[in-house]
Every structure is written in C-alpha cells, then in structure tokens.
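Problem 3 from the worked examples.
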Amino acid sequence: MWCCSAVDVYVSNPHGEDTENVKGCFISGCTGGTLSRKITPKTAPPKEKKKIVVPSPYMFMHIDDHVRKTPVDVAKNVKSLVTYLVGPCKSDIEKVRAFYYWICNNIGFDRKYVYPKRESPNDPNVILRHGTAASSEGYTNLFSALCRSVSIPVKKLKGYVKDTKFDPEEPFTQLDEPEHAWNAVYVGHDWRFVDCAWGAGFEDEEGIYHRRYEEFWFMTDPENFINDHFPYLRNDPMSSEMWQLLKRPVSLEEYNKTVRVEAVTKDWGVEFSHREPIIVFRKELHIIVKTTIVPIMQITATLDTSDKVNMDAYVATFRDSEDHYKILVRPPSPGVYILKLAGKREGDTAPRTPGLVKYILKCTDINNLVKTFPFSYTAAQTFQVCILEPTYRDLEPNAPIKFRIASPFLGDVFIEDIVLEKIDDYTWEGEILTPKKSGQYLVVYGTTSETADHRRKQPLYKFNIL
C-alpha cells in the first residue's frame, strides 16, 4: 500500500508570465503521491510594512516557546527538525518564524571551524550535526532547506554588507566578491527578508564573535535592509536590482555613500541630519538627531582620533526638545576623527547603551584657541538643559564668570550653593567668582519645577579650575 503525500515544487519563470500551475503524480519505491509544479511568485516590493504583518514579536510567544523545547534528538537532520518545529504552526509565517528562531538560537558561528573532510561545510544536515556554521551561507542554506521542506518559496541571495569592519573609505566595487548571504522568503503574498546569520549574533570591530539573538533581522522592511545589505548577483544585474524589493532601486554608489546605522537605530526610528559616512568640515560640526518612533532619554557621543586617542572633551550633546538632539564637535586640531553616537530609550535601566551610528570626521581647519566643552551629566539631557555661557570647561581661578543656563523643565539653577536669577520662563543667569585655588571644580545643579527641594539637586555640568 502506497503512503500518499503531496509535494509542491516551485520553478522560476524567467519571463514573469502568469503561467498556470501543473499537477501530476510521482512514484518512488513503495511510496507515491501528488506532485504540483508551481511558478515562483513574482519579485516585487511588499505591500505592507513589517509593523502591520508583525505588530509585535509577542504574537509568536507560543511558537517561540515550542521552539525552545525542541528535543536534541530531532535536531539531527532537516526532516525530523521540520516535523517537530511546524507542529503547532497554523500559517506559513508561523513556520518561517519557527525556523528563524530555532536557527538563531541554536546554530553557532566560527569562521575557523574544521568539518570532517568528506562533509560539506554548507550542507544543512552537516550544520545541524555540528551545531556550527562557518559562514553566512551555512545559515542561509539551512533556512532554505527548512522552508523548502514545507513548500514555502525561498530565495538565497548574496551581496555586499556593511558589517562592523566596513570601511567607507574603501567602498565596494562590482569587482569585489560578494561574501555575505541571506534569504528572501515568500509569506502572506509578499517577499520578505530574513538574515539568520545576523539574527544569531555579530562580530565586533576586533573580529570577536558574540552570540546574541536579534529580532530585527526577521521580516525586515526593504528600506531598512538596504542600508547594510546590497544584493549583487554578478551574472544577473537586473535580478540584483529586483531583489532589493524597492520601488526605486539603489545604485552601488548610493549604497556606499550612505552611513551604516545599527539595527536598533532603524527599529527606534532615529534619523540624522548627515547621511554620509564621511563628513568633511571646517572649525565646527553640528549634527541634528531626531527620534520618530521610540522616545530616547539620552544620547552619548564619543570622539577619538584615528589612532584611538580619546577626545571626548571636544564633543557636546544638547537636547533641544523632546525628540531633537544636537551634537556639536569642535576638534582641537585638523585631522581625522571617529565619532560614535549611542542612545538609551526612556525607561531603559540596562547598563549597556546601544550604539546608533559611527562617522568618520575630517576636520580641515580650526578656530584659534579651541577650548573643551563642560562635562555634561545625564540630567542635562533629561531636563533639556542648554548651557549658553560659558561654553568651555576650564575656568581661571578667582575670576568673575557669567553663567547663563536655559531649560524648559527646571525650577531653580545653582552654581554649587549659589542660586542663579531667573530672567524669563526658561533662562537663568548670574556672575560667579571662581575658587581661588587651581585643581578645584564648579558644578551646576538644578531642581525640577515640581520639586524645589534643594536637597534633591541634580548635577548638570562640571567645570575645572585651572
């Protein structure tokens, strides 16, 4: 007695015509069943954003919980793993979620991993047996095999990526070999991007791999994906553009000239006034940061020379309004600098501050006698404080200095224990005689409008006495 089953085989239609599907039967040994040949869906931008299709990862809680309980013995080959993973799934998107979540949480990465001589390092069953991939192609092949096992259309793509080692001063050219692979998968009547390799972890700038699950690379919107993934199928330039899944494809030159931003930057809707990775300027640089989705309570900026000498005293961050920040860079000398911005969203108490973006700065000229910025405490951004005078960190001893501070949220402003005069709704000012001895410092404090209790003063800025 034959065991009947159904198999769907997807084939590409090079002319994009709506060819009818073909049905038939197959016999293999003592088994048989129906065979359907289906035309691979046309390549086109998705009709809906990810936030509509996947409004929250919590919609997959039952799938993720099932995946976490996967028995070790079923993960030895593609067939048994698929059978287990799709158990509770009621749709293709749930199946794809199960595959992505399992791969990202169970397959490690090691470029130097040595497989037995007769085993292919990119074979899905080999990767399952070893639990390790030696390249992004290993992740991609495994995801493809799982999808094909349940007749979900899937495409393996290769191209250029802006990872942590990407150098914008050495842009990609069409002569470079594409070294990264990812997938496009067809679910819910649309093609969607999936990158299991980046979803499983990342390599830092020192080449050290960190296992860390990343939700962002599941069903990523094309306009976010193109920031760091450029598909390049060398023998098919037309398909390369099509697989950007964008209405207006981006050229390789445009791709190279767009600054690489972190996944969290795109997820939070953070936008920058400067979109190029290399910024050439004279004397001072102003970068405006705007938040559009997730409220950010703090942005930190670090500045280093190209040979990693810290220059944080020459960069300052000001919060102009609830969703606008201004980064001011005033280098001490012409040269090349590395500016990194990181941010924390409201309510986040984790010690790690996620990175947002990195720029290469080229300063061609400076102001005479460049001075360092005052040291800024977190509360200065929280209360949107702007120090108008003085704008330099080092003060002369025993000297009269005029202070002028602005904020829409403070109730009182102090220089140590001296209260500044409030001259309008948002501004305080006063003249202070600095300490007589060098080596001391002055701290600007503030209290909120709701709490004028002087014992709960928040530090805002600190100045050194030379």
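Problem 4, a separate protein:
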Amino acid sequence: MFHLLLLAAVVLGGYVFLTRTLFKSSKCKGNAAMVGKTVVITGGNTGIGKATALHLARKGARVILACRNRDKAELAIADIQQETGSTDVLFIQLDLASLKSVRCFTEKFLKTESRLDLLINNAGLVADGRTEDGFGIEFGVNHLGHFLLTYLLMERLTEAGGGRVVTVSSMAYRWGRIDPEALVVNRHLGTGRYSWQFFHAYCNSKLCNMLFTHELAKRLKGSNVTCYSVHPGVVRTGLSRNVSLWQKVFIEPIARLLFLDPEAGAQTTLHCCLQEGIEPLSGRYFSCCAVEDVTPRGRDDVMARKLWDVSERLCGLS
C-alpha cells in the first residue's frame, strides 16, 4: 500500500512539475484596438491559427485566412462568423509549398487590400518530402514560403504605420543547426524516411524562423514596423499528422493529458499582436507571453545574414 501511495505521489508531482514548466500556459493581456485593422494569418483555418483568428475577429479586425485548402478555410470562416458575429473574415488561397502561389497571393492581396497591420506567419508542419520548387518541405513551408511572403508584403505593412510581423517558431530551435552553403546545394534542412530525421529538420526550420526574425528586425530598424518570434507552447494541433501510427498511439494519450489546447497555444502570438509598448523588443523571442533570452545560435548575426542572403537567392530575389 505504501508503495502505491509513493508511486501516486511521484506521478502527481511529475504532472504538477510538467504543467508548470514544459507545458506551462499563459494568458494574453494585450488589448490594442483592432477595429479598422487588417490581419493576414497563414494556416488560419485550424489549430493555433484559427484560435488566433477567432480572437482578432472578435476584436473587430478584418481577418484574412491564407490557407491552401478552400473547403477547410470556408468551414473555419463559418465557425468564426458564428462565434464572433464578424462578417469581415475572408479567404485568399496560399500554398506555402509553392513560391508561385506565394507570389499569386501577394499580387491578389496588394490589388484588393489597401492596408496590412499584422502578418502572422503561423503555418508549419513536420513531414518529409519536397515542395513544388524542389525544396525540402519543412524548409520550403516553415521558412522559405514565409520569408517570401513577408518580403513581398513589407511595403504594405510599412504604409499602414505600426505594423507587426509575428512568426511562430518553437523552443525546438535549440536543437537546430543550419549550413547556408549546403542549403544552396541540397535545398533542404534534412531528410529521411524516419520520423526522427524529419523532426530534426523541423528543429532546423524553427531555427530559421528565429534567425529570420533576428535579421528582419535589423532591416526594419528606423521604420514603423516591428517583428517578433514566439514559442506557442507544446500544443495539440495537426502539426504531427505525418508521424507514424505507432508514434501517434504513444503521443496521443500524453497529448490529451499534458499538451495545451489551441486557444492556450495562441496566447503568446496574441500577446505579440496586441500588447502595447513592446516595440523596443523588436526581433526578440517570446514564450508564455513574456520576452525570453535565446541561445547564441538563435541570435547569431553572421548566420542570420547568410540565411537571409541564401533565402533571397533561392526565392529569385537576388
């Protein structure tokens, strides 16, 4: 009996410890006015993106879901409209795995939308394979597509005054490594048939997000646009939909017990969208609605500049 009580105490203690550390949640307290402002959210039809869209639509923003699948986007829009009463939520097709699609999206947006106040680079995946342009899928979607999207929309962000770019990264950046020269040749951040191999590529892509934000802040210095990267927490989303069946069987019970729901996962993104006074923190990394120091690898000036130059080259911008 004593051993059972001891085991129960250890399990309970472990659960409390994890929910207050690795699986800690937070609450956005930012309350910036959003009426009359326009927001673009990639992957806004599900998970963290949809939860973010719901909150911003409720605050009166014009919300554009930049998604690949029209049917899923329209279902999400119907849900958002029903829950918020907003009639200012719309869909523009965007496939981040296609640089042509990114260009088509930005051309349509710039023709039809007069302002852009928030660009939320939210979409991401863990998978293996190649994009339409021959890039590793995680490099192409998680970084390169968002890089080009941000680059092409920057002028409109600047025009609005006080625009922000929020890029969803991850604490997984800590395990990432990037070789810019190899990127030019291989066009991927890692590949392989096993889940652990493309999870490592995912970590590399999240490091790309960190370095992109770090360099972007420098290039935006002196403008009225700021940028931030965020760790949303460990969240129950469709991010791992491409892992093997046995891994899902293992992960699912843990996810239900410990992982944050999408609404909780959206809080740090919302903080960087809505919290007033964080402009001096442009380029910084946020977790649990607070700025957090990063490892030297995540703020490497030389590597950030090299990654930017390589990204420009691979996108045909230089």
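Solution to problem 4. DSSP finds eleven helices and eight strands in the chain. The longest strand covers residues 62-67.
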